[in-house]
């Protein structure tokens, strides 16, 4: 299936011409609409969509911009040629546009302050664990019998094990803080965390060093993902599953063998993709920024200074090792979360003539059941169906938006993902158009079948 600008829907081109004329006539759009009611919000969004200049990128995706920003998916008019093929999500769209679910600067300030305070606390407290481990180990060596080995001496009083375990816990805490920081940066890229673009940009640029993500690069690529996710005729470069079984079968045998090894779910999701994204693609992309490129060095240097002050032996080795594994663990977690948001059966994929961004939000985005103790880190991104309906709903409003919508019966068609379903979906690698489901490689379909997905299929190399 060809994914190019030549196959872009004709409706998009007509929309581009119509809205360009409106923009030339002097139409302007406020960056943060504040309607008095859901009805006025819908009207304002419709006017915004009619006036915003629209351009197509080189791969045929619509990029809608206003006031140097991007429109929310909720403001994107339906572009399907056959309207009978597009379901009506009017009630859901009106719900997510309600004023009470928009940005609140007081809540945003509190959310950011807590995150920054947690980072400062981690930077101050984590080195104490390693310093305590060293001191306890020295004490153990001093009190152990002369014939005892170094390991036996270190275990003599029990404290080194405690300190080492605590230091290992700090690794997970730091990874969690990176994820939380990324969620805030993510919303800043959508222009929804704060009520003004200025503060969204400032916060995003600040957090890019903590989240290992160039802000400008993320803002462009991720907003593009929101407009094309689920469209089979436009390549979604952000997707963990971007190809179909038909694409796979058309490849030469040697390419299928190569991809079978590289796209193996365990190798791809746990090693190749997180290392490539965070240590190659993001820092060295032409749209990246120097603060983001130097983030590893900056954070490792900060840890080195903290370790050195606390008297930790080999502070450079500790700092670099801890920072590397923290970034790797955060990368694995973030990629797995993103994978579960769009690559779970039953999913949504449609050719351009049948594609609807709103259907992609309801049918192609999921609601994850996240343990309560992790919700502080995920900041509501588990309600991904709402996020794809409207990127203007900030992270700290997503839970309330979901709960109110649940009371109104708006989410009955949303794909809910629990633990077993998440474990099964980890192994999905391709979209199979004839059966409208995601498939895996042999022998991983056996895992899926044992976890509650008896019809899980696989793509054969031969």
UniProtKB/TrEMBL annotation:
Signal peptide start and end residues:
none
Q: Which organism is it from?
A: Capsaspora owczarzaki (strain ATCC 30864)
Per its UniProt record, what InterPro entries does this chain match? FA_desaturase_dom (IPR005804), Fatty_acid_desaturase (IPR012171)
Keyword annotations from UniProtKB, A to Z: Membrane, Transmembrane, Transmembrane helix
Q: Which GO terms describe its molecular function?
A: oxidoreductase activity, acting on paired donors, with oxidation of a pair of donors resulting in the reduction of molecular oxygen to two molecules of water
Source organism lineage?
Answer: Eukaryota, Filasterea, Capsaspora
Query: From its record, what is one biological process in GO terms?
Result: lipid metabolic process
Start and end residues of each Fatty acid desaturase domain? 168-404
**What name does the UniProt record give this protein?**
Fatty acid desaturase domain-containing protein
Q: Where is this region: Disordered?
A: 1-41
The keyword Transmembrane is assigned to this record: yes
């Amino acid at each position: 299936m060809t994914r190019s600008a030549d196959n872009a829907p004709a409706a998009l081109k007509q929309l581009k011409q119509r809205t360009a004329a409106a923009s030339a006539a002097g139409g302007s759009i406020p960056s943060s609409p504040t309607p008095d009611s859901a009805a006025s919000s819908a009207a304002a969004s419709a006017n915004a969509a009619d006036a915003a200049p629209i351009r197509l990128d080189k791969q045929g995706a619509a990029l809608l911009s206003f006031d140097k920003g991007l429109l929310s998916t909720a403001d994107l008019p339906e572009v399907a040629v056959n309207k009978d093929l597009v379901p009506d999500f009017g009630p859901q769209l009106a719900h997510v546009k309600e004023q009470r679910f928009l940005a609140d600067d007081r809540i945003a300030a509190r959310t950011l302050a807590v995150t920054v305070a947690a980072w400062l606390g981690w930077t101050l407290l984590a080195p104490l664990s390693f310093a305590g481990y060293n001191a306890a180990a020295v004490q153990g060596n001093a009190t152990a019998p002369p014939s005892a080995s170094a390991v036996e001496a270190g275990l003599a009083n029990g404290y080194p094990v405690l300190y080492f375990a605590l230091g290992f816990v700090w690794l997970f805490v730091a990874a969690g803080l990176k994820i939380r920081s990324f969620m805030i940066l993510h919303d800043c890229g959508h222009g929804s965390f704060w009520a003004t673009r200025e503060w969204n940009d400032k916060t995003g640029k600040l957090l890019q060093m903590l989240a290992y993500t160039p802000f400008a690069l993320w803002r462009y690529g991720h907003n593009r993902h929101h407009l094309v996710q689920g469209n089979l005729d436009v390549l979604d470069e952000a997707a963990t599953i971007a190809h179909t079984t038909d694409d796979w079968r058309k490849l030469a045998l040697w390419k299928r063998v190569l991809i079978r090894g590289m796209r193996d779910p365990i190798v791809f999701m746990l090693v190749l993709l997180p290392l490539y994204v965070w240590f190659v693609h993001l820092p060295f992309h032409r749209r990246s920024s120097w603060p983001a490129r130097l983030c590893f060095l900056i954070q490792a240097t900060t840890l080195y200074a903290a370790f050195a002050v606390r008297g930790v032996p080999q502070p450079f080795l500790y700092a670099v090792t801890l920072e590397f594994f923290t970034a790797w663990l955060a990368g694995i977690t973030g990629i797995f979360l993103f994978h579960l948001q769009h690559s779970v059966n039953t999913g949504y994929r449609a050719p351009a003539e049948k594609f609807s961004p709103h259907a992609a939000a309801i049918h192609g985005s999921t609601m994850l059941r996240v343990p309560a103790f992790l919700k502080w880190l995920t900041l509501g991104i588990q309600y991904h169906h709402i996020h794809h309906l409207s990127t203007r709903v900030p992270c700290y409003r997503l839970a309330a938006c979901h709960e109110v919508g649940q009371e109104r019966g708006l989410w009955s068609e949303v794909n809910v993902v629990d633990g077993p379903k998440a474990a099964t979906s980890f192994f999905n690698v391709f979209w199979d158009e004839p059966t409208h489901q995601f498939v895996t490689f042999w022998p991983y379909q056996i895992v899926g079948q044992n976890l509650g997905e008896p019809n899980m299929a696989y793509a054969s190399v031969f």
